[in-house]
Design brief:
This is OB-fold nucleic acid binding domain-containing protein. The protein has three helices and 18 strands. The protein has 323 residues and is mostly beta strands. Strand 15 and strand 16 form a beta hairpin. The longest helix is centred in the first third of the chain and has 12 residues. The N and C termini lie far apart (87 Å).
Length: 323
């Protein structure tokens, strides 16, 4: 039999005493679940989910002993459903109460397991959110979810700890290491960089100086052999502001851009720094920022980036053909 206990709050006015009645079952409340619900709970204990088929062919989950549409007895045919399912509707709980299954925001959802015609109500865990948070954009009707079963199960609906979204994206770490052999032309260019010089090659047809050296002119398709040493100053022609971190960049956001070195006929892609990203502009005059001589090797890393110099911007008309 249940026992009733009464607690009274202290007050100076007995007529306004608040009474809190609590109904308790000290030994627990035992009831028979019957063969239909019993089968459902037994399957949950074993990590499976089943529904029951009605005479009309519908599969009810959770199963009941009668068809809620007709009132007729179900067939007794059990059908394994899920484990995945579809959210048919949901309600976000931004501030859980102490009785709730989570102490952080979560959702209650009606979930229709695959193979079922009805849905069951359960908690949906979408991750860790601050108290009072708004529902995430990933929470929506139609999302696919799967049950998270408890390690120790006893045959109750609580054997499913919650439902979790199906994995739809991954973000693995990826890296690729390789050694680049530059060939004769690029090798000669890197020899110059190792000496603090920027060397290009002049095309015998269009007479444009190509840097970095390629050994041929990309415009005329002819070999290039005449070397020309270029200045390490130039003009920004185009650029992009980047908000994704890069180990070579000094900070985020950083600017990568094409620089037309003085005397060159082609632009060179490089970092641009020494000035806030929102102040970089087309036509800006820049100069190579070389690392200390003791750090030089045979690579473009000898130049950290290009940075502004105190010279007037180059008019657009003079660089428009290098965009």
């Amino acid at each position: 039999m249940p026992s009733e206990t009464t607690q009274s709050s202290e007050t100076t006015r007995p007529s306004e005493t608040a009474v809190n009645h609590v109904v308790e079952f000290p030994g627990g409340y035992t009831r028979s679940v019957g063969p239909v619900i019993g089968r459902f709970l037994s399957e949950l204990r074993d990590g499976r989910m089943v529904g029951v088929r009605t005479a009309a062919g519908r599969v009810l989950v959770p199963p009941s002993e009668y068809d809620p549409e007709t009132g007729e007895d179900v067939t007794g045919e059990f059908v394994e459903v899920g484990p995945a399912g579809t959210v048919t509707t949901w309600s976000w709980v931004p501030n859980p109460a102490k009785e709730h299954p989570f102490d952080r925001p979560f959702a209650w959802a009606l979930i229709r397991p695959d193979g079922a015609d009805t849905a069951l109500l359960h908690a949906l865990d979408l991750g860790v959110f601050e108290a009072g948070a708004k529902p995430p954009k990933t929470l929506k009707t139609g999302m696919r979810v799967r049950p998270k079963y408890r390690a120790e199960r006893t045959g109750t609906i609580g054997d499913i700890e919650c439902f979790l979204p199906e994995v739809t994206m991954i973000n693995p770490r990826a890296s690729l290491e390789f050694r680049l052999k530059g060939g004769q032309a690029l090798g000669r260019f890197l020899d110059g960089i190792a000496e603090g010089r920027i060397i290009g090659q002049r095309c015998p047809v269009c007479e444009k100086v190509i840097v970095p050296m390629k050994g041929f002119c990309t415009r005329d398709g002819v070999p290039t052999t005449e070397e020309v040493e270029l200045s390490d100053t130039g003009t920004v022609t185009t650029f992009a502001v980047n908000n994704i971190p890069d180990p070579r960049a000094p900070e985020v956001p950083f600017v990568s851009g094409y620089v037309l070195l003085d005397g060159a006929g082609l632009t060179m892609l490089t970092l641009i720094a020494g000035v806030p990203a929102d102040q970089v502009r087309m036509g800006m005059r820049v100069k190579a920022a070389w690392r200390p001589r003791e750090e030089w090797d045979r690579s473009m890393a000898n130049i950290k980036w290009f940075e502004p110099i105190d010279e007037p911007d180059v008019p657009f008309e003079e660089i428009k053909d290098f965009m």
